[in-house]
Amino acid sequence: MAKFHALDPFDFTQPAAWPAWRQRFSLCRIASKLNLEDDNVQVNVLLYAMGKDAEPIFNTFTFGDDEDDYYNKVINKFDVHFVPKRNTIHERACFHRRSQLQGESVEAFVRRLYELAEYCDFGIAKDEHIRDRIVVGILDSELSQKLQLESDLTLEKAISMTRQVRLVWEQLLLLQLLVLGEQLHWL
For residue 59, which of 77, 71, 72 has the smallest C-alpha distance? Predict the structure, then answer.
């Protein structure tokens, strides 16, 4: 079994951080091959890694007689405990209000849209919503217009076009700096 540094215990004062902590534990669980152990061992390691405040919460959980998939049942109980039911209307409102911020890279803007869309229950239309939000929310109005003119615009194509524009701008800026450097050199 591989050796890893211990995870930081879960911060129980920040319940919203549970999904991120759970994901880190899941990565560690697989990398260390803990997932191949008995469910009771996995649950005990989970509780230990979470910290001493996990036990009182765990002790409030009730389980049926069926002990199949015990580890996942415990994880689901912690999910219910820490993650409140999301209000889809509010989540979608936050998504639809999101525009690229001044100084925010296109990559960061797109990544944030993916994060916001995660809780919007868009289903199979998720990519279309993200694509539309990029078109409407991007700061570069010329690029927005170009994207709007693409009748077969997909999310992948929208992201690709925004990346190309960024690369062209970076190359033009570099070229201008080189020309300016040459001009200063001759002075």
Answer: 77
